[in-house]
Amino acid sequence: MSGPEDPLLITNVAVAVDLAIFTIREQRLQLLLIRRSLAPFRGRWALPGGFVLPGEDIDAAAERELREETGVQRDAAHLEQLATYGAPRRDPRGRVVSVAHLALVADAATPVAGTDAAESRWADVADLPHLAFDHDRIVADGLDRARAKLEYTTLATSFLPTTFTLAELRSVYEIVWGAQLDPANFRRKVLASDGFVVPAAGGPTVHGRGRPAARYEAGGATVLHPPLLRPT
Amino acid sequence: MSGPEDPLLITNVAVAVDLAIFTIREQRLQLLLIRRSLAPFRGRWALPGGFVLPGEDIDAAAERELREETGVQRDAAHLEQLATYGAPRRDPRGRVVSVAHLALVADAATPVAGTDAAESRWADVADLPHLAFDHDRIVADGLDRARAKLEYTTLATSFLPTTFTLAELRSVYEIVWGAQLDPANFRRKVLASDGFVVPAAGGPTVHGRGRPAARYEAGGATVLHPPLLRPT
DNA sequence: CGTTTTATGGTCAGATTGACTCTAAAAGGA
DNA sequence: TCCTTTTAGAGTCAATCTGACCATAAAACG
């Protein structure tokens, strides 16, 4: 593009980042919500987010927000840009362009505490309230992205702690996709995918019931060849 | 996110859209470039783009730019948001956040004429000059996206006119992926993909050499089940 | 100590894939 | 006209992959 040659064309635009932060808790896919304490949409639930600071990179702003809201460091979670939402009237106070991000975090590492005072909670994705602004759409887009990316990337491991069993990994897929997978076939495909998972050092788990499962950790791979397709 | 509660936080940010417009001409994947007539990067090639007007939706701005640069209407091409680039120093004049878009257009419908005066050309993707701003990265990201989306969507048809032969469709894949595909196997997979292509009304083509091929047109499908994976 | 539960290894028929072969239908040249 | 060249399109076949199962292993529970 070109620069602001004509200052008259420059709208006073504010740039924000909003985060759709997903995790899996209690066997359910959940999303972090913040209750707005200010107008507009005061009292309404919304995605965590905030303005990009002067001189701050957009990616850095997203990382900062993720850290502020969950205490999660960049390397302990997956964070990627989702899409940018800039309809003229999406914020009644003025032109605000929001660069939405998708974050996947592990359960253990995401206390709701540590937030900047505002009330927050993990909400079941299957039972979300109507959100402020255009955040309903952002969440829908984020869900689509997450579900699709499980097929051809190793992203599912982002929902899990450092080491995990194949049953836990399968559970991630089942919860995100809302479909049952055959344990034996899932194992075969995952183990055949080069670099998806590698055996972890420690011994088996004590899961409580059933035969203890071997522990694995994420391998170096980030894309899956071939993909692990959703059941039709 | 929340609104501009503190006016001091609002940087004077300009929002632009930049377009990576790909087409296939002369059996090569090409990208539309504009030569900058103003500083910065004056004389350097860059992606077409411009500022989002006050009150204009970002998507609308992208459609407008596409129309201005190529004369292509929205429905005759594929246009999607790619990513947003907002590093603080990406534009030396000030903070400019660019919402990059990816466009795929058919050859016939894209004259370089009709442009707003600036010099423009189609450049081979394999032989691009060093572009202004961070446009090299935008192009690389757009290429990755396009190559990946050919696998699991019917996007390849966007490069072709309304009706086309399977050889032409295969050629799109081969040019974008830079790999040869077996004609017979390609045909089998495409015809087996429900709604990818449907036979066109008109008779066969006279291609010049060889047996004339049947004409097809894009079917209603937009995603491919199963995907048409790149050769390994 | 038997029952239940889950992990993990195998089996098998059917579907899919990649590599090829064969025929059809045109153009171009001798 | 007839032969050669070229590409479209149908078909074959072995290797691989997939989904649906079955079987055994290793724990907890009563």
Summarize the structure in short:
Chain A has 232 residues and is α+β, with helices and mostly antiparallel strands.
Write a structural description:
Two copies of one chain form a homodimer. The first copy, chain A, has 232 residues and is α+β, with helices and mostly antiparallel strands. The first copy, chain A, has two domains: 7-150, Nucleoside Triphosphate Pyrophosphohydrolase, CATH 3.90.79; 155-218, Winged helix-like DNA-binding domain superfamily/Winged helix DNA-binding domain (Arc Repressor Mutant, subunit A), CATH 1.10.10.10. Chain A is 23% helix and 25% strand. The first copy, chain A, has helices spanning 58-70, 135-152, 166-177, 183-192, and strands at 14-25, 28-35, 45-46, 49-51, 77-85, 96-105, 120-124, 163-165, 197-199, 215-218. In chain A, the strands form two sheets. In chain A, strands 1, 2, 3, 4, 5, 6 and 7 form a seven-stranded mixed β-sheet that branches. In chain A, a hairpin with a 2-residue loop joins strand 1 (14-25) and strand 2 (28-35). Chain A is elongated. The interface between A and B is large, with 51 and 52 residues.
